[in-house]
Specification:
about 130 residues
Length: about 130
């Protein structure tokens, strides 16, 4: 359970940084559309909830293996890529009814990859720091 809590904190801290990037790109209303809203504030709530849940899973799966900062970065990158594929390339277009966009990679998706990598790295480092 301790790794789940560390993952939640790491996911939320990384989620705030990733959220700021998405806010600058004007993406928060699109995140809000996942729950039928277009409010940037709702987008933030949804994004941080997703960050907390996926962070908990990260802690559960990888927490015990993060024994160094480099391990935190490594597992964070792997997990960030996993959620980029699942979230940005598959689930989000599917939920938003944009089936023609599933698996398509353009400039917005590359920017999303950058955000997911930053999120994952920060999450992995926060999980590591909580162990030391």
């Amino acid at each position: 359970m301790i790794y789940v809590n560390k993952g939640i904190l790491g996911g939320v801290v990384g989620g705030v940084v990733f959220g700021l990037i998405m806010q600058m790109m004007g993406m928060m209303p699109m995140i809000a559309m996942l729950v039928g809203s277009e409010s940037a504030a709702i987008g933030w709530i949804v994004h941080l909830l997703i960050s907390a849940v996926t962070g908990a899973i990260f802690g559960l799966w990888f927490g015990s293996q993060i024994t160094s900062s480099s391990a935190g970065v490594k597992y964070g990158i792997i997990y960030g890529v996993i959620w980029w594929v699942l979230g940005a390339l598959i689930l989000m277009p599917m939920i938003l009814g944009m089936s023609d966009m599933i698996g398509k990679i353009g400039q917005a998706q590359w920017m999303s990859l950058m955000g997911h990598l930053i999120w994952g790295i920060i999450m992995g480092l926060v999980v590591y720091k909580q162990s030391n």
